[in-house]
């Protein structure tokens, strides 16, 4: 897989960051708790986080834990 050596990211790592951001928002984690460094990977994590929050709001504001409890 192609990787930009200067930036330290590839499509696979961006997909992983997006999925982790999505899961973090589903679990109610604050956006400020992003575990990544580097603007591009942070942006991918935040995009996942934001997408999950929109879905959560569409469902009435519930999160993962309220659905399984």
UniProtKB/TrEMBL annotation:
The keyword ATP-binding does not apply. GO terms for biological process: regulation of translation. Signal peptide: none annotated. InterPro entries: Ribosome_modulation_factor, RMF_sf. Coiled coil: none annotated. Pfam families: RMF (PF04957). Keywords: Cytoplasm, Translation regulation. Gene3D superfamilies: ribosome modulation factor like domain (1.10.10.620). It comes from the Bacteria. This is Ribosome modulation factor.
């Amino acid at each position: 897989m192609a990787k930009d050596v200067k930036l330290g990211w590839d499509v696979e790592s961006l997909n992983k960051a997006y999925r982790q951001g999505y899961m973090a928002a589903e679990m109610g984690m604050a956006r400020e708790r992003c575990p990544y460094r580097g603007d591009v990977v942070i942006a991918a994590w935040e995009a996942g986080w934001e997408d999950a929050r929109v879905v959560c709001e569409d469902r009435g504001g519930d999160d993962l834990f309220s659905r399984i409890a």
